[in-house]
Specification:
The chain is an alpha+beta fold. The chain is built from eleven helices and 19 strands. The strands form six sheets. It has a six-stranded mixed beta sheet, sandwiched between helices. Strands 7-10-11 form a three-stranded antiparallel beta sheet. The structure holds zinc ion (ZN) (2 copies).
Length: about 375
Protein backbone atom coordinates (compact mmCIF):
# COMPACT_ATOMS: atom_id res chain seq x y z
CA UNK A 1 0.00 0.00 0.00
CA UNK A 2 1.25 3.47 -0.83
CA UNK A 3 1.43 5.87 2.06
CA UNK A 4 0.58 9.53 1.95
CA UNK A 5 3.44 11.96 2.49
CA UNK A 6 3.66 13.20 6.07
CA UNK A 7 4.59 16.79 5.25
CA UNK A 8 1.68 19.22 5.15
CA UNK A 9 1.15 21.81 2.46
CA UNK A 10 1.65 25.40 3.56
CA UNK A 11 0.88 28.59 1.69
CA UNK A 12 2.76 30.65 4.24
CA UNK A 13 4.93 33.35 2.67
CA UNK A 14 3.45 33.07 -0.81
CA UNK A 15 1.64 36.39 -0.69
CA UNK A 16 4.94 38.07 0.15
CA UNK A 17 6.57 36.38 -2.84
CA UNK A 18 3.79 37.81 -5.00
CA UNK A 19 4.28 41.30 -3.53
CA UNK A 20 8.02 41.05 -4.21
CA UNK A 21 7.40 39.94 -7.80
CA UNK A 22 5.06 42.88 -8.34
CA UNK A 23 7.65 45.26 -6.90
CA UNK A 24 10.45 43.81 -9.03
CA UNK A 25 8.48 44.14 -12.22
CA UNK A 26 7.49 47.75 -11.47
CA UNK A 27 3.97 46.52 -11.98
CA UNK A 28 0.92 47.75 -10.15
CA UNK A 29 1.52 46.97 -6.48
CA UNK A 30 -2.06 45.91 -5.94
CA UNK A 31 -3.75 43.05 -7.77
CA UNK A 32 -6.96 41.05 -8.04
CA UNK A 33 -6.27 37.32 -8.42
CA UNK A 34 -9.21 35.37 -9.85
CA UNK A 35 -7.75 32.16 -11.38
CA UNK A 36 -8.88 29.13 -9.35
CA UNK A 37 -5.46 27.50 -9.02
CA UNK A 38 -3.79 30.83 -8.29
CA UNK A 39 -6.38 31.56 -5.60
CA UNK A 40 -5.83 28.16 -4.04
CA UNK A 41 -2.04 28.46 -4.19
CA UNK A 42 -2.14 31.81 -2.40
CA UNK A 43 -4.77 31.06 0.25
CA UNK A 44 -5.44 27.31 0.53
CA UNK A 45 -9.11 28.01 -0.28
CA UNK A 46 -10.56 25.36 -2.64
CA UNK A 47 -14.02 26.84 -3.30
CA UNK A 48 -15.21 27.61 -6.79
CA UNK A 49 -15.71 31.36 -6.38
CA UNK A 50 -13.73 34.19 -4.88
CA UNK A 51 -11.40 37.05 -5.64
CA UNK A 52 -8.12 37.55 -3.83
CA UNK A 53 -7.01 41.13 -3.39
CA UNK A 54 -3.36 41.75 -2.56
CA UNK A 55 -2.13 45.25 -1.75
CA UNK A 56 1.06 46.28 0.07
CA UNK A 57 -0.92 46.22 3.34
CA UNK A 58 -3.87 43.90 2.81
CA UNK A 59 -4.37 40.25 1.85
CA UNK A 60 -8.07 39.63 1.40
CA UNK A 61 -10.34 36.93 -0.03
CA UNK A 62 -13.76 38.18 -1.08
CA UNK A 63 -16.19 35.32 -1.55
CA UNK A 64 -19.89 34.55 -1.25
CA UNK A 65 -22.04 33.31 1.62
CA UNK A 66 -21.55 29.62 0.79
CA UNK A 67 -17.84 29.82 1.40
CA UNK A 68 -17.09 32.14 4.32
CA UNK A 69 -16.61 29.41 6.95
CA UNK A 70 -14.82 27.05 4.60
CA UNK A 71 -12.44 29.76 3.42
CA UNK A 72 -11.50 30.79 6.96
CA UNK A 73 -10.91 27.17 8.03
CA UNK A 74 -8.89 26.28 4.93
CA UNK A 75 -6.78 29.43 5.12
CA UNK A 76 -5.96 28.74 8.77
CA UNK A 77 -5.13 25.10 8.06
CA UNK A 78 -2.93 26.10 5.11
CA UNK A 79 -0.93 28.69 7.03
CA UNK A 80 -2.58 31.81 5.59
CA UNK A 81 -3.52 33.12 9.02
CA UNK A 82 -3.06 36.73 7.92
CA UNK A 83 -5.70 36.36 5.19
CA UNK A 84 -8.84 38.43 5.80
CA UNK A 85 -12.02 36.73 4.54
CA UNK A 86 -14.83 39.08 3.52
CA UNK A 87 -18.24 37.77 2.49
CA UNK A 88 -20.61 39.55 0.12
CA UNK A 89 -23.96 37.90 -0.47
CA UNK A 90 -24.53 39.37 -3.93
CA UNK A 91 -22.12 39.93 -6.81
CA UNK A 92 -22.65 43.66 -6.41
CA UNK A 93 -21.70 43.47 -2.74
CA UNK A 94 -18.59 41.45 -3.51
CA UNK A 95 -17.55 43.97 -6.18
CA UNK A 96 -18.05 46.82 -3.75
CA UNK A 97 -15.92 45.02 -1.15
CA UNK A 98 -13.13 44.53 -3.70
CA UNK A 99 -13.26 48.13 -4.91
CA UNK A 100 -13.18 49.33 -1.31
CA UNK A 101 -9.69 47.82 -1.02
CA UNK A 102 -8.31 49.42 -4.17
CA UNK A 103 -7.20 52.80 -5.37
CA UNK A 104 -5.35 53.56 -8.60
CA UNK A 105 -3.68 51.10 -10.98
CA UNK A 106 -4.66 47.52 -10.30
CA UNK A 107 -3.35 44.30 -11.82
CA UNK A 108 -5.82 41.62 -12.87
CA UNK A 109 -5.88 38.41 -14.89
CA UNK A 110 -7.29 39.42 -18.25
CA UNK A 111 -7.43 35.89 -19.63
CA UNK A 112 -9.24 34.54 -16.55
CA UNK A 113 -11.59 37.27 -15.39
CA UNK A 114 -14.95 37.40 -17.17
CA UNK A 115 -15.41 40.29 -19.56
CA UNK A 116 -18.31 41.55 -17.47
CA UNK A 117 -16.16 41.62 -14.29
CA UNK A 118 -13.30 43.27 -16.15
CA UNK A 119 -15.55 46.02 -17.51
CA UNK A 120 -17.17 46.44 -14.10
CA UNK A 121 -13.87 46.95 -12.24
CA UNK A 122 -12.34 48.97 -15.09
CA UNK A 123 -15.02 51.61 -14.71
CA UNK A 124 -13.65 52.38 -11.20
CA UNK A 125 -9.92 51.60 -11.33
CA UNK A 126 -7.29 51.38 -14.07
CA UNK A 127 -6.88 47.63 -14.79
CA UNK A 128 -3.54 46.31 -16.03
CA UNK A 129 -3.14 42.68 -17.20
CA UNK A 130 -0.77 40.68 -14.97
CA UNK A 131 -1.46 37.26 -16.49
CA UNK A 132 1.22 34.71 -15.71
CA UNK A 133 2.59 36.50 -12.65
CA UNK A 134 1.23 34.02 -10.08
CA UNK A 135 1.75 31.11 -12.49
CA UNK A 136 5.47 31.90 -12.67
CA UNK A 137 5.68 31.79 -8.87
CA UNK A 138 3.73 28.53 -8.79
CA UNK A 139 6.33 26.89 -11.03
CA UNK A 140 8.75 26.52 -8.17
CA UNK A 141 7.36 23.74 -6.02
CA UNK A 142 8.35 23.34 -2.40
CA UNK A 143 9.24 19.99 -0.86
CA UNK A 144 5.71 19.26 0.37
CA UNK A 145 4.23 19.94 -3.06
CA UNK A 146 6.79 17.71 -4.76
CA UNK A 147 6.16 14.87 -2.32
CA UNK A 148 2.43 15.11 -2.98
CA UNK A 149 2.97 15.05 -6.76
CA UNK A 150 5.34 12.09 -6.33
CA UNK A 151 2.65 10.30 -4.34
CA UNK A 152 0.09 11.00 -7.08
CA UNK A 153 2.59 9.70 -9.65
CA UNK A 154 3.12 6.51 -7.61
CA UNK A 155 -0.62 5.92 -7.49
CA UNK A 156 -0.93 6.15 -11.29
CA UNK A 157 2.17 3.98 -11.82
CA UNK A 158 0.92 1.28 -9.53
CA UNK A 159 -2.60 1.28 -10.97
CA UNK A 160 -1.34 1.04 -14.54
CA UNK A 161 1.27 -1.59 -13.66
CA UNK A 162 -1.43 -3.73 -12.05
CA UNK A 163 -3.81 -3.69 -14.96
CA UNK A 164 -1.65 -3.61 -18.08
CA UNK A 165 -2.02 -7.39 -18.20
CA UNK A 166 -5.70 -6.71 -18.91
CA UNK A 167 -4.74 -5.60 -22.45
CA UNK A 168 -6.00 -8.61 -24.39
CA UNK A 169 -8.28 -8.98 -27.42
CA UNK A 170 -11.91 -8.13 -26.66
CA UNK A 171 -11.34 -5.65 -23.83
CA UNK A 172 -12.56 -2.13 -24.61
CA UNK A 173 -10.82 1.20 -24.12
CA UNK A 174 -13.52 2.21 -21.65
CA UNK A 175 -13.05 -1.01 -19.65
CA UNK A 176 -9.40 -0.12 -19.19
CA UNK A 177 -10.15 3.48 -18.28
CA UNK A 178 -12.79 2.51 -15.72
CA UNK A 179 -10.55 -0.06 -14.08
CA UNK A 180 -7.61 2.36 -13.98
CA UNK A 181 -9.64 5.13 -12.38
CA UNK A 182 -11.20 2.74 -9.87
CA UNK A 183 -7.78 1.43 -8.86
CA UNK A 184 -6.34 4.93 -8.52
CA UNK A 185 -9.14 5.86 -6.12
CA UNK A 186 -8.59 2.67 -4.16
CA UNK A 187 -4.91 3.56 -3.89
CA UNK A 188 -5.66 7.00 -2.43
CA UNK A 189 -6.40 9.35 -5.33
CA UNK A 190 -9.27 11.83 -5.18
CA UNK A 191 -9.87 10.90 -8.83
CA UNK A 192 -8.17 11.03 -12.20
CA UNK A 193 -6.04 14.06 -12.91
CA UNK A 194 -7.65 14.59 -16.32
CA UNK A 195 -9.68 12.51 -18.75
CA UNK A 196 -7.73 9.27 -18.90
CA UNK A 197 -6.62 8.42 -22.43
CA UNK A 198 -6.83 4.81 -23.56
CA UNK A 199 -6.32 4.88 -27.32
CA UNK A 200 -6.01 1.63 -29.25
CA UNK A 201 -5.42 0.49 -32.79
CA UNK A 202 -4.43 2.10 -36.07
CA UNK A 203 -6.79 5.10 -35.83
CA UNK A 204 -7.38 5.94 -32.16
CA UNK A 205 -3.77 5.48 -31.05
CA UNK A 206 -2.74 7.93 -33.79
CA UNK A 207 -4.64 10.72 -32.02
CA UNK A 208 -2.60 12.24 -29.18
CA UNK A 209 -5.77 13.25 -27.31
CA UNK A 210 -8.16 10.42 -28.17
CA UNK A 211 -11.06 9.77 -25.78
CA UNK A 212 -11.77 6.20 -24.70
CA UNK A 213 -14.48 4.48 -26.73
CA UNK A 214 -16.21 1.11 -26.76
CA UNK A 215 -13.69 -0.16 -29.33
CA UNK A 216 -12.58 -3.71 -28.57
CA UNK A 217 -8.87 -4.32 -28.76
CA UNK A 218 -7.54 -6.81 -31.27
CA UNK A 219 -4.24 -8.60 -31.67
CA UNK A 220 -1.54 -6.30 -33.00
CA UNK A 221 -3.03 -3.05 -31.62
CA UNK A 222 -0.84 -0.34 -30.21
CA UNK A 223 -2.46 0.98 -27.01
CA UNK A 224 -1.49 4.41 -25.69
CA UNK A 225 -2.50 4.94 -22.05
CA UNK A 226 -2.05 8.44 -20.61
CA UNK A 227 -3.11 8.65 -16.98
CA UNK A 228 -2.64 10.73 -13.87
CA UNK A 229 -3.91 10.83 -10.31
CA UNK A 230 -5.25 13.85 -8.45
CA UNK A 231 -4.40 14.26 -4.75
CA UNK A 232 -5.29 17.37 -2.73
CA UNK A 233 -5.45 19.44 -5.90
CA UNK A 234 -2.09 18.25 -7.24
CA UNK A 235 -1.82 16.29 -10.47
CA UNK A 236 0.40 13.62 -11.94
CA UNK A 237 0.85 12.68 -15.59
CA UNK A 238 2.34 9.62 -17.30
CA UNK A 239 2.01 7.66 -20.53
CA UNK A 240 2.92 4.11 -21.46
CA UNK A 241 2.36 2.36 -24.78
CA UNK A 242 1.78 -1.36 -25.16
CA UNK A 243 1.12 -3.82 -27.96
CA UNK A 244 -1.65 -6.38 -27.72
CA UNK A 245 0.12 -9.61 -28.62
CA UNK A 246 3.48 -9.53 -30.38
CA UNK A 247 4.86 -6.23 -31.71
CA UNK A 248 5.49 -5.95 -35.45
CA UNK A 249 8.88 -4.80 -36.70
CA UNK A 250 7.55 -1.28 -37.25
CA UNK A 251 5.96 -1.17 -33.78
CA UNK A 252 9.19 -2.38 -32.21
CA UNK A 253 11.17 0.25 -34.18
CA UNK A 254 8.80 3.06 -33.14
CA UNK A 255 8.89 1.91 -29.55
CA UNK A 256 12.70 1.92 -29.51
CA UNK A 257 12.84 5.35 -31.19
CA UNK A 258 10.41 6.88 -28.70
CA UNK A 259 12.31 5.28 -25.83
CA UNK A 260 15.58 6.73 -27.18
CA UNK A 261 13.98 10.14 -27.75
CA UNK A 262 12.56 10.21 -24.25
CA UNK A 263 15.91 9.16 -22.77
CA UNK A 264 17.61 11.98 -24.72
CA UNK A 265 15.09 14.49 -23.37
CA UNK A 266 15.52 13.28 -19.80
CA UNK A 267 19.31 13.40 -20.16
CA UNK A 268 19.08 17.04 -21.28
CA UNK A 269 17.15 18.12 -18.19
CA UNK A 270 18.79 20.02 -15.36
CA UNK A 271 18.40 23.47 -13.86
CA UNK A 272 19.78 26.17 -16.15
CA UNK A 273 18.98 24.56 -19.51
CA UNK A 274 16.46 26.10 -21.85
CA UNK A 275 13.21 24.19 -22.31
CA UNK A 276 13.70 24.48 -26.07
CA UNK A 277 16.93 22.46 -25.80
CA UNK A 278 15.11 19.58 -24.08
CA UNK A 279 12.56 19.63 -26.89
CA UNK A 280 15.36 19.65 -29.48
CA UNK A 281 17.04 16.65 -27.82
CA UNK A 282 13.85 14.61 -28.19
CA UNK A 283 13.15 15.82 -31.69
CA UNK A 284 16.63 15.12 -33.06
CA UNK A 285 16.26 11.36 -32.46
CA UNK A 286 13.17 11.32 -34.69
CA UNK A 287 14.74 13.65 -37.26
CA UNK A 288 17.77 11.37 -37.55
CA UNK A 289 15.43 8.46 -38.29
CA UNK A 290 13.54 10.50 -40.91
CA UNK A 291 10.34 10.48 -38.84
CA UNK A 292 10.49 14.00 -37.38
CA UNK A 293 7.18 15.02 -38.93
CA UNK A 294 5.37 12.28 -36.97
CA UNK A 295 6.13 14.03 -33.64
CA UNK A 296 3.21 16.41 -33.71
CA UNK A 297 3.21 18.03 -30.26
CA UNK A 298 5.52 19.68 -27.76
CA UNK A 299 7.87 17.66 -25.57
CA UNK A 300 6.38 18.47 -22.19
CA UNK A 301 4.87 20.83 -19.66
CA UNK A 302 4.89 21.72 -16.02
CA UNK A 303 2.50 19.90 -13.67
CA UNK A 304 1.16 21.09 -10.34
CA UNK A 305 -2.22 22.50 -9.31
CA UNK A 306 -2.92 22.51 -13.06
CA UNK A 307 -2.25 19.53 -15.29
CA UNK A 308 -0.71 21.82 -17.91
CA UNK A 309 1.19 24.77 -16.48
CA UNK A 310 4.46 26.66 -16.80
CA UNK A 311 7.02 25.86 -18.06
CA UNK A 312 6.12 24.50 -21.48
CA UNK A 313 8.80 22.49 -23.29
CA UNK A 314 8.40 23.17 -26.99
CA UNK A 315 10.34 24.32 -30.03
CA UNK A 316 9.79 28.00 -29.23
CA UNK A 317 10.03 27.91 -25.44
CA UNK A 318 12.55 30.38 -24.02
CA UNK A 319 11.86 29.27 -20.45
CA UNK A 320 14.93 28.24 -18.49
CA UNK A 321 14.39 25.23 -16.24
CA UNK A 322 14.94 25.99 -12.57
CA UNK A 323 15.11 24.03 -9.32
CA UNK A 324 11.63 23.12 -8.17
CA UNK A 325 10.19 22.75 -11.66
CA UNK A 326 8.16 19.56 -12.10
CA UNK A 327 7.82 18.77 -15.80
CA UNK A 328 6.87 15.96 -18.17
CA UNK A 329 8.97 14.54 -21.00
CA UNK A 330 6.59 12.91 -23.46
CA UNK A 331 7.75 12.47 -27.05
CA UNK A 332 5.62 10.38 -29.40
CA UNK A 333 5.15 9.21 -32.97
CA UNK A 334 1.73 9.11 -34.62
CA UNK A 335 0.45 8.04 -38.02
CA UNK A 336 -3.11 7.13 -38.93
CA UNK A 337 -3.01 3.57 -40.19
CA UNK A 338 -0.20 2.59 -37.86
CA UNK A 339 -1.33 4.10 -34.55
CA UNK A 340 0.95 5.82 -32.10
CA UNK A 341 3.59 5.43 -29.43
CA UNK A 342 4.12 7.89 -26.58
CA UNK A 343 6.16 7.51 -23.42
CA UNK A 344 5.79 10.13 -20.70
CA UNK A 345 7.48 10.50 -17.34
CA UNK A 346 7.10 13.21 -14.73
CA UNK A 347 10.35 14.56 -13.27
CA UNK A 348 11.60 17.06 -10.74
CA UNK A 349 14.36 19.31 -12.10
CA UNK A 350 17.53 19.19 -9.98
CA UNK A 351 20.90 20.93 -10.21
CA UNK A 352 22.59 17.82 -11.58
CA UNK A 353 19.73 16.52 -13.71
CA UNK A 354 16.38 15.22 -12.64
CA UNK A 355 14.56 12.96 -10.22
CA UNK A 356 12.13 10.72 -12.07
CA UNK A 357 8.80 10.52 -10.22
CA UNK A 358 7.35 7.87 -12.57
CA UNK A 359 8.27 4.43 -11.30
CA UNK A 360 6.62 2.14 -13.84
CA UNK A 361 8.91 0.27 -16.24
CA UNK A 362 9.05 1.48 -19.86
CA UNK A 363 11.43 -1.15 -21.20
CA UNK A 364 9.08 -3.12 -23.39
CA UNK A 365 5.91 -2.67 -25.45
CA UNK A 366 4.70 -5.99 -24.04
CA UNK A 367 2.29 -5.55 -21.10
CA UNK A 368 3.72 -6.69 -17.78
CA UNK A 369 2.54 -10.06 -16.46
CA UNK A 370 -0.11 -10.05 -13.77
CA UNK A 371 1.29 -9.71 -10.25
CA UNK A 372 1.94 -13.16 -8.80
CA UNK A 373 1.24 -12.33 -5.17
ZN1 LIG B 1 -0.03 12.77 -20.22
ZN1 LIG C 1 1.51 15.48 -20.27
Amino acid sequence: MLSRPQSTLSVSGRVDRLRAALDDAARPVQVIVSGASNRRWLTGFTGSAGLVVVTPERFVLVTDGRYGEQARAQADAAGAGDLEVLVGTTMAEQKALVLGLLSGDTGAEATVMSRADWMGFASSVELIPIDGTVERLRRTKDAAEIELIAYAADIASQALGELASMLVPGVTERDVRDELEYRMRRLGADGPSYETIVASGPTHAALPHARPTGRQMVDGDLVVIDVGALVDGYHSDMTRTYVVGEPSDEQQQWFELVTASQAAGLAAIRSGVTARDVDAACRSVFDDAGLGELFVHGTGHGVGLDIHEEPFLGRASDAELVLGDVVTVEPGLYRVGSGGVRIEDLVEVTSSGHRNLTALSKDSPCPPSPPTT
